[in-house]
Amino acid sequence: MANLTYSFTDLSTDHSDKQQLRYVSSSSFGKDWNSILHSHECTELFYVTDGEGWFCTEEKAYPISKNQMILVNPKVRHTERSSETHNMHYIVLGIDHLQLYFDQAQDFGSFQIFSLSTRYDEILSILHIILEELQKHRPFYQEICQHYLSILLLQVQRFTGQNFTVSAPSQIPYECEKAKLYMDKHFCEPITLDSLAAITHWDKFYFSHQFSAAYGIAPISYLLQKRVEHSKQLLETTDYSITQIAEAAGFSSQNYFSQIFRKSTGLSPREYRKQGDQGTGT
Hey, which end of the chain has fewer CB within 10 Å, N or C? Predict the structure, then answer.
């Protein structure tokens, strides 16, 4: 594998929260290609300049090819594999103080793949300018690279049509974020502490401790909280029966639903619905 890497770790003197380049790599497939799942503390911008292969996470391998770009959030375990017949070449930027929230995120909001069928030359030209500056070390090259990084991030938003927002990376462990986002999306489905721990690849007791420390609430308590909030909406906006609402909110039985609902609100589901009807004058 041919690889040129330029690191900003020891060069940058700007310690603000502004997005900064940590490293830039230009790589191409070789017989010594070592494809191992790994993660980074920074966000990666991964651009395929030629060939094809796969972007791999713990769950799935996604086909990628020339002029596709992958944005990978911090702490996401991933790797890449090249096709043996169409060797893959790519440029990677590691960017500090950046975490992306996409409008249409992949599962767990961990990464997004973009196909730049048009205007790719403008993105690629910025990447080549950054590489050239790093190779030639001309005066002010570090500052110039940082400015081109800002332009690149704006161009990415323009050309992809994504209004993703940027923020400083969360200090919450990625595994906890992953489990929380899973519950946000699948809270109506059967979920146990064991199944959440399996998602994170942690022991369930360690996961429960870490999640509680990160969010100030135990994972199953958070799940029940999501289900109660959803059931409130159904009680307020539908004429579903209590049994139907219990099932739709993910509770295993009407009795368990009523028990948890009363514990959370001080009211039974029927009393809550009646109170809402009286408030609207119905």
Answer: C
